[in-house]
Amino acid sequence: MDGSHGAVRRLRLLHALALDSGARYTEAETEFRELIEVNSLADGAQGIDTLAAKHGLGTVLAVTGRLDEAETLLREVTDVRRRVLGDSHPETLMASSNLAGVFLETGRRDEALPLLRAVSSAQEMVLGADHPDAMTSRHNFATAQEDPAAAASQIQSLIATRTHLLGAEHPHTLRSRVNLAIIRHKLGEKHRAEAELREILALQRRVRGDDLREIAETWHEVLDLLRDRGDLSAALAELRAMDAAGIRPLLPSVPGAWLVRSALAQSLIDAGIPEQAEVVLRDLLSTPAGDESWMKQQRFHARNLLAEALEEQKQPEAAVQEWEELLANPEPAADPGRGLAAIRNRLAVALVSLDRPHEAVPHLRRGLTGVEHGSGDHLTLQHNLVRAMWESDDLDGAESEVRGALLRSSSETVPSRGALLLELAGILRDRGNLRDAEKALTEAVNLCRAPQGENHPDTRTAVAALAHVQALRTAPPASEATEPGRP
Predict the structure, then answer these.
(1) In a 3-state reduction of DSSP, which class is residue 217?
(2) Which of 1, 63, 154, 468 has CA atoms 20 to 30 A from the CA of 349?
(3) What is the pLDDT of residue 27?
(4) For residues 417 and 383, what is the distance between their CA atoms, to the nearest angstrom?
(5) Helix (H, G, I), strand (E, B), or coil: what is residue 372?
(6) Is there a contact between 334 and 294 (Cβ–Cβ < 8 Å)?
(7) What are the CA-CA distances from residue 416 to residues 263, 341, 410, 420 (Å)?
(8) Is 3 helix (H, G, I), strand (E, B) or coil?
(9) DSSP letters spanning 271-309
(10) CA-CA distance, 59 to 125, in Å (whole number)?
(11) Residue 435's Cα: distance from chain center in Å?
């Protein structure tokens, strides 16, 4: 029988759905893509069978982390089914539920929650509360809520229903138990959550030992719990065991895996173990990844963390190379304003440490355009810009920058204006203008002393600088050779 015959195409669709259900995603994707081509020729791009194949492909893409293409397909299927079948048709509701799942995976809770609420209510009316589709939507709605206590209560009820209808070892029952453990972790019940996750992991390994992807999701939740608890040695041991089991090649298709491993690397950097963070990040970046925007963002973030880990290990040249390559293609950055400004700032500091301050200046100027004036980020960038210009021997530019900042800082906090006055005084001192340097430092002392007290570090720094400049003004010329370094 010809492969384009309707009955054959429907059998192929059932086969593709079975592959999907069995977590054989690569084979399922190939079959769904071929069916879309065949069905489009036979029934048109919006035919019922074509939409079914597109819906199947959309769910496979969502599960394997390719969320941009998944959203495009699921939006198309949902819109056409609403128009042709109606809002309350079971197939329309399932497409809407899967589309809401993509919204959740991409962090758009405000779009996902109302859609999930509407879908769950309609499915219970049309299909019944115990229908698998209705339970899936109810599960997704519960996990998407911001109130963890309410979510825990709803998922516990759903676990009881799924255990009764599907069995305690069914993947859907175990998935609900995993999410309940995650919520308990958020509620502070960390040891109970870990015990629950390890029990589920043991069940999954016994029942579905060949399905590494499903095991990997639960295992990464264990890893994240250990990281959050601060037990980094145990987390690293867990990571090594996971990769020894063959998990790493699956990372792009495991929801949350990149986020968990990146978070572990950040925790290792924060804990002063950057060499271990580098190992985690290089392993992560060595895994294959698709071209969708979400994955590009994850790789961008991981490379930025790698640069930080290299910098913390006193390898500024390697860190500079990573940051410069990132900034050459900044499009994947999740936060193109503040996030890129932070990268430019760290790059500039590294360049100054390498005695390349003239290269740092343009990065700092661009960074200032991406942050709010007067914010902590703005003040840091501004301070480093002045320092870079100063180190470049551009004293005219450095003085102009500081004086302009002082004119704009009349309403700013005492510490920021005091820091600017100290910088101005240092520049004036380097230029031999000790009289104006003394005036700037006198203002800084008075500014810091009134609200912060005589013993505050800022006050003591300003007083010491003022005393030094006053000594330079009254000392013989030869003594002026012993002046403090630049900030």
Answers:
(1) helix
(2) 468
(3) 84
(4) 11
(5) coil
(6) no
(7) 32, 19, 10, 6
(8) coil
(9) TT-HHHHHHHHHHHHTS---SSHHHHHHHHHHHHHHHHH
(10) 24
(11) 50
The identity of residue 108, as a single letter, is R
The residue to which tokens 């037990």 are assigned: 231
Q: Which two tokens stand for residue 410?
A: 């009349």
Do the Cβ atoms of 421 and 465 come closer than 8 Å?
no
- Please, which residues have CB within 8 angstroms of residue 167's CB and are 6 or more apart in sequence? 173
Nearest CA to 366 out of 395, 338, 392 is that of: 338
Residue bearing tokens 């009289």: 435
Which pairs with CB-CB distance under 8 Å and at least 24 residues apart come from 110-116?
A: 112/140, 112/144, 113/141, 113/144, 113/145, 116/140, 116/141, 116/144
Tell me if 196 sits within 8 A of 177, measured CB to CB.
yes
Residue that the structure tokens 């999954």 belong to: 204
Tell me what pLDDT residue 257 has: 84
- 154 by DSSP, 3-state: which? helix
Amino acid letter, 145: Q
pTM across the whole model: 0.72
pLDDT at 288: 76
Q: Is 48 helix (H, G, I), strand (E, B) or coil?
A: helix
Which two tokens mark 193?
Answer: 């959550």
pLDDT at 2: 47
Transcribe 162-209 into DSSP letters: HHHHH-TTSHHHHHHHHHHHHHHHHTT-HHHHHHHHHHHHHHHHHHST
Q: Which residues contact 219 (CB under 8 A, 6 or more apart)?
A: 201, 238, 242, 247
Phi and psi at residue 281, in whole multiples of 5°? -70, -40
What pLDDT was estimated at residue 289?
67
d(CA 442, CA 433) in angstroms, rounded, equals 15
Q: Which long-range contacts (CB under 8 A, 24 or more apart) does 78-85 make?
A: 80/46, 80/51, 81/51, 84/46
* Neighbouring residues of 161: CB distance < 8 A, sequence distance ≥ 6: 130, 135
Tell me if 158 sits within 8 A of 165, measured CB to CB. Answer: no
447 contact partners, CB below 8 Å, separation of at least 6: 414, 417, 418, 421, 462
In one letter, which amino acid is 435? R
What gap in Å lies between CA 251 and CA 253, rounded to an integer? 5
Report the Cα 77 to chain-centroid distance in Å: 29
Q: What is the mean pLDDT of each run of 10 residues along the chain (487 residues)?
A: 67 85 77 90 87 91 82 94 92 92 86 91 89 86 86 91 88 88 90 93 80 83 91 94 87 78 94 96 84 74 95 96 92 72 93 95 92 82 90 91 80 69 89 91 87 84 91 71 47
Tokens of 258: 């990149």
Per-residue confidence (pLDDT) for residue 376, from 0 to 100: 79
Measure the CA–CA gap between 423 and 244, rounded to whole angstroms: 54
